[in-house]
Amino acid sequence: MLSCVPWRCQFDIELRRKGERIYERLLRVCAKVCVVTGAASGMGKATAEMLVELGAKVYALDIAPMRVPGIEKSITVNLAQKKSIDDAFKEIPDAIDRYFGIAGVSGLHNNFAETLTINFVANKYITEEYLDKRVPDGGGIVYCTSSGGLGWEKPACRNEYMGLIDLKGWDAAVAAVEKLAS
Predict the structure, then answer these.
(1) Rounded Cα–Cα distance for residues 74 and 16 (Å)
(2) Whole-number pLDDT of residue 60
């Protein structure tokens, strides 16, 4: 049984009344290679469980131990470290049908620079270095992180964050984040 998140439970109840499971058709993941970060807990774990239930080959990534029955492979990764990301992607197939970047930290136990590195820089790096090459046309990429982008809608913050988007490479992005944090 899946971890029960409210939207999923309500969605399932409504669909079961109709005798169908539309989310299976929407995701179309049966026998597809799916990568999920943050798979040890919360939304990442619930996503990995749902994808396994739908027949996907799930590669689960997290810094914490993962206990998701049926996953293809559990890979330990520290998204605050480029080398750890590179090592993790050596264990993932070259073709990725769906990528769910759900790992993130809230900032309660991490400083601003580490939070933004995990929640933004890692996702940017993974997209540019790996997903551009490995996710085919018709594939899917989803990102859901926590507080790394809080305040983005305020003009002063937005201008600072927008500067991060155009940076090339891990080192430039981390240096800019550290400058923002100081």
Answers:
(1) 31
(2) 97
